[in-house]
Amino acid sequence: MHLLKNTAKIPGPPEPLGRQSAFDRSFVILVSLALAAAIAVAWLKGPMRVVEIAATYLGFLAVLSPKILCGFFIAASVPILIPPMVLVRWVGQDSGLRGLSVATLAGTLVPGGPMMIFPLAASFRAAGATTATHVSFVTAWSLFGLNRTIIWEMSFLHIDFVLLRVLVCLPMPFLAGWLASRVTR
Amino acid sequence: MNIMIGTVVLMALAGWVWQRLGSDDRRQYAYAAVRRMAMTNLPRMVVALISAGLFAELLPDDIVCLYLGDTAGYRGVLIGAALGVITPGGAFVAFALAAAATSAGAAMPTMVSYLCAWALFSLTKVIAEETVFLGGRFIVLRVAVSFPVPLIAGVLALWVERVFA
Q1: At what angle do helices B149-164 and B108-121 cross, to 10 degrees?
Q2: What proportions of chain B, in percent to the nearest 5, are helix, strand and coil?
Q3: What span, in angstroms and rounded, lies between the C-alpha atoms of B41 and B156?
Q4: Distance from the A177 Cα atom to the nearest Cα atom in chain B, whole angstroms
Q5: What is the pTM of this model?
Q6: ipTM given for this complex
């Protein structure tokens, strides 16, 4: 509650970190790849197959859309609920087991894609977080960011697979962070 | 089933977040941000998902079985990791390809190392986004301390599979 009271005074929402425009170069590359794949499939298996695949995956996207929209909403709200500066203080400068745990937890829970996470990680460093916590944060987000796991991985792959993958990856952010602290000491 | 569970979990979370936002003002800010995210990401998702489906169609089953299948073992884990690094694009591309490869006969440990390698070291993400915000030095260090992760995860998965198979 205390947190809510503080942030209520902020006049505007925090600008989305590292905004990306919709139709930039990477989008052009993506479209060219799609076209190349479409031509290859049409050539090998006939143009109807391209239409079938497109319809299947668009249908899949429609099924996923409630999840995707909820994910967007959560990702949009977290910076309002927890201002990045609070998170930065929270991740802090402790590079012991506690610091690495907090960084791992933050990496798992903070929603958003690379364009949100990397600027946030950069602000951790600006606030004095050690390289080790930093590595733990990025590793945890990469390996089991909840947003990605729930929205995408669980939609495409079997739950047994997802659980096993997360399980074998669980120690990795600590391991990477610990190694980083040895290297940078 | 997975999709339903995930949808329910996310809806509950979104509802909780909506309630925590408290005031209409803050909800409006959130809605505006959602609109911006949707405008940026939805066109990408549509194109990326369709092209993932097309690429999945192009995966040759026999080659997938040979190099990524059950008989591939440790070598499969290594190949999976290498493929993960060079897979471009967002989450849906890698997961869609992994799902397609699995139905074509790829083994589970191979896909574990593939997805871990993609998540940690996907070249397009590292080059286009991580270097910009975090700088080359950090990335060199991060890669140096975490490059064995996909291999360790893949080998662990291989052992788990052997124990339970």
Answers
A1: 160
A2: 90, 0, 10
A3: 35
A4: 8
A5: 0.82
A6: 0.84
